Amino acid sequence: MAELKNDLLLRALKKETVERPPVWMMRQAGRYLPDYIKLRNKYDFFTRVQTPELACAITLQPIDQVGVDAAIIFSDILVIPQAMGLEVLMEEGKGPSLPKTIQTRSDIENLRTDNAEESLAYVYDALSLTKQELNGRVPLIGFAGAPWTILCYMIEGKGSKTWDKAKQFAYTEPALAHQLLQKITDITINYLKLQVKAGADTVQVFDSWAGSLSPLDFSIYAQPYLLQIADALHEHAPVILFPKGSWYALKTLSESKAAGIGIDWCVSPAMARELTGNNITLQGNFDPSKLLAPIPQIKKWVKEMVNEFGSQKYIANLGHGITPNVPVDHAKAFVDAVKETAFSTQSA
Asked: Would you say the C-alpha torsion 315, 321, 327, 328 has a positive or negative sign?
């Protein structure tokens, strides 16, 4: 395996001193890039995910075109429900849908769990191929959805603003909810270990819908499973937890085996540092909508963000995925601004 020429991300996760903060963007491989849209027009979503050559090509696009410090494998969090035997449909512009939802104990018991992660060989093949093609340019990030977020989709069958059905299931059938969450957790741990084996240098766990829970309910239905994943993986690779909207869990999560925590724009850098006692690497938290502002304004905001977080124990990123309407040169301006800020933060 080629030696890493740019290991900023891994050094930041290990809390080592870096010359400048590393920068990448959630959803950087995909829908805002013209070259991705060409592939999207030719192949349906799961063909792109399940064909290692296509997933690799898409993963590499932002490295070449935007200049980020890490690649994140092109895949989807809903490959886990697929591996467990549920059908997942992905319509362009509409988001995912699961025609058959989980409603009863027998639905949970009928899920495929033994070696389910082995059916995801295409992800490991894509990681191995991408690792080879990167040739040490930047680290490669693997990922999975967090158990609570996956449960939300399995119960609701589609995206939701409020996740009422998922929450109702958790509150009225807590034993079943925990049974399902544990099944998802076990498969996710094995899945991430196999991603690391295939070439992922670090892994991120996306709890996109954690913010739908109150602090108490987060501590019951989300946190224990995030901690299990961090505990199981930390000896294999650094783990980044991203519980969107759950700033109230920062203190507890900062005391876990995770190497980094992603945060959204609803918490200030100063508050995040205070809640975590500056003990963990933070990642975030630029609002993707701000990437639609004029480039000089983007650069000004980015520099302010980096200065607030400080140049150490920090990974510059968005507070959620980049949106399809962001011009490529605006995404590049975000990355360039972080790279340019490095020197002023060093001397600050």
From this structure: positive
